[in-house]
Records
---
Amino acid sequence: MAAAPKIPFEPSYRDIDRSVLRVMEPAGPAYWAWIGLCFTLVAIAAALWVRQIYTGLGVTGLRQPVMWAIYITNFVFWVGIAHSGTLISAILFLFRTKWRTAVYRAAETMTIFAVATAGLFPLVHLGRVWFFYWLLPYPNERYLQPDFRSPLVWDAFAVSTYLTISALFWTMGLIPDIANAREAATGWRKKFYTVLAMGWQGTDRQWRHYSMAYLLMAGLATPLVISVHSVVSWDFAMAINPGWHSTIFAPYFVAGAIFSGVAMVITLLIPMRKLLGIEDLLTEWHFDNLAKVVLLTSLVVSYAYITEAFMTWYAGDPIEQMTFHMRYFGPWGWMYWVMVSCNCVIPLLLFSPRIRVNMRALWIITIFVNIGMWFERFVIIAGSLTANFDPSQWGSYRPSVTEIMITVGSFAWFLGLFSLFSRFLPIISMTELKEGIVWLRKALKMDRVKAA
Amino acid sequence: MSTIAIISSFADDTRCAQAIEELRAAQVGDFNTFSPIPSHKIEHAIGRPKSPVRWLVLVGGITGVLTGLAITIGTTYEWRLNAGGKPLLSWPPFIVICFELMVLLGGIFGFFGVLMLSGVPTTESAPGYDGRFGEDRFGIVVRCDEAQAARVESMLKESGAEEVVREDEAQPR
């Protein structure tokens, strides 16, 4: 790829197009080596999953009483990661937030691939995966139906709705940009974009329906974001298991999801802007604002940890208190303190405006947040299952190589899909960036004045 | 008398909207506009009623809620499971399903409504479309009688059009 030309002080619509379309030019061998590495790891994970299906769940570390562990941790983690995309594309759209235009496409793309990754884990977790459709209500020969009072059934509806709506919202936003790419492309890419653009030409009739539908879909997606992670939290909160049965779970999970999701957006965008040469489109101003969202949600999550501890102490239930004592000081206590350090202490550095715009520091902080949030899910899920009301059922858990490699494969799957997307379709929305060009110009001025 | 198309391009939506207002006031021919972004100025100038896609979303949402009620109530009656002596129909969990299906069908109706109302997918190109209209130019294509063509051209130029050409003179890009 040619060296990225610096876009002018006062960029025009054409400058935006050129910068974004240049990213979609054919990639070099390093890129394909990276894609090859990602999909090799996916192939290893897939082979291990096939072995697990063939020989049974005995190849995992899952034993009574810990029947939910890394797989469900990954499910909750990836659903959480997915939330920032819809936050940025729908909620911040309704609030008319100025900085969202540059980051929304990458965040939404992340949402699609994160939900696609999350959706795999309930299947991976099943002993008899070929019966996955038992959660769906279909007219079967014995009139057996799923129990709609079960949170697992709500979960199937919530996650599949979330994937569908996010994909439609994302596709709709992509159509005008693909039509734009179609005009500039040549060869097979021209044919590819012509098919995907579906004949979009930006007439007033098209924009009128598009704008209305976009607004309404943002309106529908906003409560959906809140509902999906609330439903995921109810998978736990509706059970009477100590450590799970908590009324704070829904808001706490939603805040945690946005926290981890926005942190993941930053983790992906910082290297991406450098590698793809789009520093002029994703400015320090954008990262400053994203970092503020991370800081705010970190404070909410910290507050939730404190409230959870307080409620356990104040309620006086000895079993619940024992579970929390184990969580803090038991054999896996170190995980809890890693989680607190990563999610509550380290993000406090973001109070400093200088750290918020220091790309290296911000990247490291967000990686810590990702680690902390994964541990949070693990501590809640596996940690709470090790000890319940009956000491005869207490047990322990140790992840197996199969589980670890399938987890690694899920990260490779997500990163591989995201990397493929970033070179073949517009990773920054040209249309939205043009709509908010005034703000891009202001951001560039701020950046360059600071640099000078 | 034959109808001809006059294609004009503008550097910004303000001038484009102004030209549309003048064309509407003068009532010369019918016109179509192209723009790289959704522009409220152009939308107001054209003055078309609000998109009916909102009704489709509403119909989708209501269909979703009704489907949710039908499957939760219907399947519960079909497979009567007494859980701890609780009532057979427990409404709070059913609301979750109804809500999810409302969003799902509302969104699907909205998405396919946009495609249907916008006339996509299509393989046909709208008359006067130019690749620049997807990039950085705002376009108006006026279809009028030959007798009105000169007047339309001068109106477009006066409104600030950068380029005004008749369809047969336009260079394909």
Note: Residues 182 and 193 of chain A are 5 Å apart (CA to CA).
---
Amino acid sequence: MARDPSVLIFGLDVDDPKAIQGTTRGLLEKYGAERVFGTPLSEDAMTGVAIGLAFGGLRPIHVHIRMDFLMLAMNQLVNIAAKSRYMYGGQVQVPIVVRAMIGKSWGQGAQHSQGLYSFFMNIPGLKVVAPTTPYDAKGCLIHAIRDNDPVIYVEHRILHFQKGPVPEPLYAVAPGKARIAMTGSDVTLVGISYMQLECLRARHYLEAVGISAEVIDPIWLQPLDIDTIANSVRKTGRLCVVDNGWTSCGAGAEIVSAVIEQVQHERAVRVKRLGFAPVTCPPAPTLEDAYYPNGRTIAAAVRDLVTGKANHWLSDERADLREIEFKGPF
Amino acid sequence: MHERFYRSLYRIRRVEEEVARAYPTDKIKSPVHLSIGQEAASVGVCEALGPNDIAFGTYRSHALYLAKGGDLRKMIAELYGKATGCAKGKGGSMHLIDLGAGAMGASAVVGTTIPNAVGYAYAAKLRGSQQVVASFFGDGAVDEGVFHESMNFAALKGVPIIFICENNFYAIHTHQSRRQKLANIAEKARTYGMPAEVIENNDALRVYERVHEAVAQLRAGKPGPFFFECFAYRWKEHVGPGEDYQLGYRMRAEAEPWLDSDPVKTMAARVDKALRARIEAEVEAEIEEAFEFAETSPFPEVTELYTDVVEL
């Protein structure tokens, strides 16, 4: 915002004391109420306003504290933001960023837990990014702001608590390159958003039973860097994608099929998709635990995939891999 | 001034009559929503706006596009799906755009461009551009939630926008009285905190006078928005070139008073006869040339399917 006066940020609660998990703290004081403002509870119209601001030469960032609220804005995102550049023959572009927060439920239940990014991956004209590391969180947001087309920027609440190196200068993490987070030889393990962390945990559990997993973070979901994943699968022959959403018609389905299209004539591949249980998210802790994949359940499924049989194995929980990243009310 | 108004009204009417005439040839492969009978609001509003001002429309925007100064040749070519169209054959009748003229495009989904117009107006305010934005929509859009959200935000931020509700009483085939408990659209707008008035007589000059005053106030720094509900009547079917009284959802008797008070004829009566004949001849020649241009223009190359996409 300091670099480009055309950037502005708004959304429900952007300027309230909690400042969207602290991510917008201090911006109001620094850049003023015309560029930083909370909005009425009008997701549909405010998305349309963001598009209008973009038509008018500005670069708006529209923030949603829950991705679930984007259901109220689908018309603007799908029918205008995604299509304007094409349907007006290239005369206009829509440089908007839609920040959409997702999260593991932590008891928040059906409508505060959904990772709905696959909806947007289905639409030509939208870019979708779901960074995992603090480094990518900054770099992808900077790229999204500078991008001349609409970007859905998906951020997981738990990932806000992650620590990692973040360079001070401005830098951009552009679409086009997935990251091999850990190398391995027996199976390619792709984790989306927060599931990247669970995949890294799973890798440790798998080490104990002699399985070496290569863990890949796709970072950008649209466009997807399939080449990096397919090259890994050429080596391992096995692919497991762990989605931070439901598997049916999900990002995992897209990644698996795109990889198979590339490598099907070169070698046999075994695949597995993991994601949320195919039900509505329940808040009770026992049910919620069973709803989400975690390091141990991912490891168990991957072991079956690698060995080609049901092993009925679940590793003992390791204290060093337990997940306590946050507490309520969240 | 009357001559200018008449030229604009007559030109729009004749263009759409020619679209209706050409339509059965199936060369226009785009759903057309004709504005015949309700040209007055577009002409009145756009005459009150300057060339740098901006207008957002609906799928029924041939009149708005032309009144705002949109290129006629490019419009007809767009309807024909030709490469020379205003959106290179990628938009069609429902997505006309001419940035040079300040015609900012239109949506096929009712109510959708209202917040886009509000956003543009907010940008204009932040940039201090002195631009005024006009947002056109029909009475059907008032049924949509986004109308109310947009009214609220525009009033809250005092953006330089003029809302034009062209109330033709029908959303497709459903009368306003079957969609809204009260026929009080302007009153609804008023409750969001903006001046709102009804213009009943479908006269471009009356629309111009009222909107011109609102534009002057916005330019003088008075916070927007302003709201005008302009009554009009759609002579043709919702989509397509014909009439549809045989469907039985409306009676021809209802249309008669509107046919009698034809906005084009009303303006014609204010213009000297010889001058009128000259305007009409010029317009006819222009229209003939535009259709010829569309007919003879090439279709887009197939490679165009993959241009104007997001850079991946």
Note: The longest strand of chain B covers residues 161-167.
